Amino acid sequence: MLRDRVVVVGVSGGIAAYKACELVRRLRERGAAVIVVMTPAACEFVTPLTFQALSGNPVVTNLWGDQKPRFELPLESRARVGGRVEHVDVAEAAATADLMARMVHGTAPDALTCLLLATRAPLVLAPAMDLQMWAAAATRDNVRVLRARGARIVGPATGSLASGLQGPGRLAETADIVAEVERAVERRASLEGVRVLVSAGRTEEPLDPVRVLTNRSSGRMGFAIAEAARDRGADVTVVAGPVSLEPPSGVTLVPVVTAAEMQRALSGAAPHADVIVMAAAVADHRPAQVSREKLKRTGGRTTLELVANPDILAGLGAARRPGQVLVGFALETSRGVTRARAKRRDKGVDLIVLNAPADGIGGDTNRVTFVDAARAEALPLAGKREVAEALLDRVLALRGRVPARRRAKPKPAPGNSARAKAARRSSAAPRRAGRAR
């Protein structure tokens, strides 16, 4: 699993630093090329020379030393990076409370925190600290933030601590950390070469030149899915309505505003996708007429006539090709599982992700239930990145069950042609103008 992979082991300043020696040895036994990066405080517990002997590579301890150390890397990695340590398959860190706090706030005073801030590799954190520090509210908040950003947390284990107390705070067992690193490597390549199409955000239906009908969706769930798919090696296209955050990097973004615009964009991109995840909160209705003038207050009752928007998910389900996995979202206020099952059946999709307004819309967390043909599986409240990872695990299982598509001549990726780029600029303009107002 780890043969010819490059694993960076970060060691921070805690008594558990000595256990990282065994971790380095185990990783090398599994075939990984290991580079150790130490904080200055870690050097007070274990000498860099120890890790150099165990890893077979120079140890990085500061930002101002040799900028081109000679690392023993797999031939494939050396060819990709030209002798520099830029290709990292997994970054693993034995993490103190201080290191996790620095990661959350993006401070980078040393080589390890600089690497953790810059890397796009999967990140495995193994916390080790005293009982009270692990239980502190600040630490718990930091752990939640790191999980939400995609970090995998191993431990801590429970037992005797250096302070003499008993409880959680021990570094996880070496075998458990190695197993998590292997799972991170497997996950990273799990969607390599797969074309994933994601819808995100909300739609806005104009009522007059100022007002719109919309909802509170922020786009966080859809963007979390896009980021998770990107980090697994997928070629990701995101069709996004107005959102409340910056879009992820490394994906093709197609901005839209209305439900009709989203339908056109998704219909054009869907034939080229292997996986489609409809996470956008699309307006079911739009005003029958859009006033050219700002509507004024009247003394009496005002009636608004609405017409139905196109059912985008049903259209994608009717047009899907063999081998394509289609996932829809359902936000229900009552009889959720029953309605999700009906929606999955009626719209021709593989999986429905069910949630409720109080659990997910607009926030950083979500509580979902996966509803497929066989069962309904409820997940506990979790960060949206964690939900995204669980969803993609289900997508992988579905890809193993749906009939394989016929091999076809590759088509240009949606969103890259001059016409598509012009359309994106055009559709983005109303959204920017709307925000300016």
Please characterize this protein's 3D structure:
The protein folds into two domains: 6-188, 3-Layer(aba) Sandwich (Rossmann fold), CATH 3.40.50; 195-436, CoaB-like (Rossmann fold), CATH 3.40.50. Helix 1 packs parallel to helix 2 and helix 1 packs across helix 8. The protein contains 15 helices and 21 strands. It has 437 residues and is α/β, with parallel strands linked by helices. The strands form six sheets. It has an eight-stranded mixed sheet, sandwiched between helices. Strands 2-1-3-4-5 form a five-stranded parallel sheet, sandwiched between helices. It is 36% helix and 20% strand.
Number of extended strands: 21
Q: Which CATH architecture of the largest domain is right?
A: 3-Layer(aba) Sandwich
Total individual domains? 2
Could you report the average pLDDT, rounded to the nearest whole number? Answer: 83
Low-confidence stretches: 75-87, 403-437
CATH class of the largest domain: Alpha Beta
Radius of gyration: 25 Å
| Multimer state | single chain
Largest sheet: 8 strands, mixed
Q: Give the count of helical stretches.
A: 15
State the strand order across the main sheet: 12-11-8-13-16-17-19-20
Estimated helix fraction: 25-40%
CATH topology of the largest domain: Rossmann fold
Structural class of the secondary structure composition? Answer: alpha/beta
Global geometry: elongated
End-to-end separation: 54 Å
The CATH superfamily of the largest domain is: CoaB-like
Strand % is 15-25%
